[in-house]
UniProtKB/TrEMBL annotation:
Keyword tags: Membrane, Transmembrane, Transmembrane helix
Chain segments annotated as transmembrane: 12-30, 36-55, 75-98, 150-168
The protein's name in its UniProt record: DUF4199 domain-containing protein
A Pfam family hit: DUF4199
Length: 176
């Protein structure tokens, strides 16, 4: 990836990270239950993909050579990686240092939401109790679990990034 494209992706990654922190702070301040809503998670995913796609588009515009698949994917993924890493560090600090009780509250809210969802799908009571027991025993906001979640997020974003890179890559000119 060319230096100007890398600079754009890095800038967008920082903007993305700061934006995600702002969103988390607002959700934390106004209503912790937002973190348990499916649409909130989907909205965050869409926001990340849009920001990374914008970075890829800008990187393509400043590219002085053929903008290959590798360049498009690199611009997209660098943005996602930096933005979500910044957000991850903030989440670790917020839920493990600043307010560990918020993590406990969120776990309780997540358990309630999971119970309602599983009952709505008609899951057997024994299966519901087993799933909820596992959730109570495991701290979702521990450093290890947040790092695992980050890893899975990166995989998901990378898969989406493959599609974004296919859209933004330039084809080799052919003489036919």
């Amino acid at each position: 990836m060319e230096k100007p494209a890398k600079k754009i992706s890095t800038s967008y990654g920082v903007y993305l990270g700061l934006s995600l922190i702002l969103i988390v702070v607002l959700a934390y301040a106004f209503d912790l239950s937002l973190f348990t809503k499916w649409w909130f998670g989907v909205s965050l995913l869409a926001f990340v993909v849009i920001m990374a796609s914008m970075a890829t588009s800008k990187a393509k515009k400043v590219s002085t050579s053929l903008f290959k698949f590798k360049d498009a994917f690199g611009a997209y993924f660098l943005t996602v990686f930096l933005g979500t890493l910044i957000s991850l560090f903030f989440g670790i600090i917020l839920f493990n240092v600043i307010d560990p009780e918020a993590a406990e509250t969120l776990t309780e809210l997540t358990i309630e939401t999971t119970r309602d969802m599983m009952e709505g799908f008609g899951a057997p009571e024994a299966q519901i109790n087993e799933a909820l027991q596992k959730m109570q025993e495991e701290n979702q906001y521990s450093l290890i679990n947040q790092l695992k979640g980050y890893g899975f997020q990166l995989i998901l974003y990378a898969l989406i990034g493959l599609i974004v890179a296919l859209i933004f890559k330039e084809k080799e000119p052919t003489n036919v």
